[in-house]
Amino acid sequence: MIEAVSVSSDHLALLEIKSEITLDPKGALTSWNDSLPFCRWSGVTCGHRHQRVTMLDLQDLGLVGSLSPYLGNMSFLRYINFSSNQLHGSIPPEISRLYRLQVLSLSKNSFSGKIPANIFNCSKLSFINLQLNKLSGKIPNAFNSKSMITVLALDRNHLTGWIPQSIGNLTSLENLSLHDCHLEGSIPDSFSQLKNLRKIGLGENGLVGAFPSFMFNLSMLEILSFPDTQLQGSLPSNLCLSQPHLTWIGLGGNHFNGFLPPSISNCSQLEILELPENYLKGEIAVDFGRLQHLTSLSLGDNNFGSKDLDDMNFFPSLSNCSNLEMMDISFNQLGGVLPNSLGNLSSKLWYLGMNSNYLSGSIPSSIGNLLGLTTFSLNENNFTGLIPESIGKLQNLQELYLLDNHFSGVIPRSMGNLLLVHLCHFKVGRNLCQTLPPFAES
After folding, report:
1. How confident is the model at residue 121 (pLDDT cuts 50, 70, 90)?
2. Which residues contact 329 (CB under 8 A, 6 or more apart)?
3. How far is the CA of 151 from the CAs of 9, 179, 321, in angstroms?
4. Phi, psi of 271 (to 5 degrees)
5. pLDDT digits (tens, 9 = 90+) for 193-245
6. Rounded Cα distance, 289 and 316, in Å
7. pLDDT greater than 90 at residue 268
8. Rounded distance, CA 352 to CA 355, Å?
9. How would you class 164 by CB atoms within 10 Å of its CB: exposed for 0-12, middle for 13-18, buried for 19 or more?
10. Do the bridges between strand 64-66 and strand 21-23 make them parallel or antiparallel, or are there none, so unpaired?
């Protein structure tokens, strides 16, 4: 009798959940009626032994409505996924009753109000994804050391306040995403306890203070993403020596200063290195040839270089980066000439930005080897000589910026092969160049 009552409770709870859905454009809940046992309803999975609901998977169905508090009555639930719908209202605190719950995914909806602190009391909960909602208020300071949470994603909500120290109690945590949550304050010291952390994203927040050095000692880290905050300090000289798994370093749009550590070349798995819009300076002394997996290199808008001829010594090592797709070293103080090894860069390279530096000499004719280029920017440098005919081989080129240099001669007729090129004007001596021939007008 007790079991029958429990089964009936699941049935009633499902009907209550359906009653809160005001629009079901794909007819996902049409099977939720008495013509079928509820364990055969769409999106519902039951356990074989007790015929109790264990999984509720209703993601990406366009459902409109709210989430019924009766959800908390299905005590055998282990998995809840309502992501990618149009649900609104608050997250029912009754979810905290589900002591078997392991996965809670409510992302990409319009849930509002505060995050119920008591849901973190579900002792078996390992995956929480509430990203891309309209949740507000502070992140509850309610994480305890007995928690089994491995994934906590709260990014792109309207949260406020500081990052709670108690997150450091989540010693099983592997993925923490608090990107674009309007958070303030500093990164808690308790994060040093997150020894299993693999991915952390705290970008686009109002974080301040020095970037904690212990972040560079978390040996399991794969993704370190803190763009567009207000963090400061220098990068450690031993960066990557104790983090062999790093694939992504994203620290752009901060206030980092000092030098780019040559030790970065030890990050043999690195795919993305993004450090633009900081105050980094000095020589780029990284041996990029050891970064075989590098796809994106963004060092623009810093103070690299000293307007010296040796500033481009790092460039030949990029020839070994066969997966490189995007490279930006613009808005620095890099001097020197472009070596002929320019043409040895990856065939996958589609963006190459070197504008607003102090580069001189001529453009190597080997540029014609980079057949994948769609954007090539060299404006505001000190280039001289002829524009090479080989540029006409770049059939995928859409944007070519060469203005404010000192090129001479005529525009190569081979550039008539290009479909869309934004050339603007060339500076020849003190005069602006002749009008572009009709075939190359932008």
Report:
1. confident
2. 284, 297, 299, 300, 304, 353, 354, 357
3. 30, 14, 32
4. -110, -35
5. 999 999 999 999 999 999 998 898 899 999 999 999 999 999 988 889 889 89
6. 8
7. yes
8. 9
9. middle
10. antiparallel
Q: Which two tokens stand for residue 28?
A: 């996902």
Contact 288, 321 (CB under 8 A): yes
Q: Which amino acid is at 33?
A: N
Decide if 267 contacts 297 (C-beta within 8 A): no
**Residue 295, C-beta contacts closer than 8 angstroms, at least 6 positions apart:** 271, 272, 323, 324, 325, 326, 348
- Categorise residue 209: left if φ over 0, alpha if ψ from -120 to 50, beta otherwise: left
Specify the amino acid at residue 232. Answer: Q
Q: Which has the closest alpha carbon to 56: 7, 105, 19?
A: 105
Q: What is the pLDDT of residues 334-377, one digit of tens each?
A: 999 999 999 999 999 999 999 999 999 999 999 999 999 999 99
Q: Are 400 and 423 in contact (CB under 8 A)?
A: yes
How many H-runs (helices) and E-runs (strands) does the chain carry? 1, 34
Q: How far is CA 6 from the centre of its chain?
A: 44
Contacts of 231 (CB under 8 A, 6+ apart): 187, 207, 208, 209, 210, 211, 251, 254, 255, 256
State how far Cα 378 lies from the chain centre.
27
Spatial contact of 94 and 118, defined as CB atoms under 8 Å apart: no
Torsion angles phi and psi, residue 283, rounded to 5: -75, 145
Gap between the Cα atoms of 297 and 352, Å rounded:
10
Nearest to residue 113, comparing CAs of 178, 159, 76, 58? 159
Contact by Cβ (8 Å): 261, 239? yes
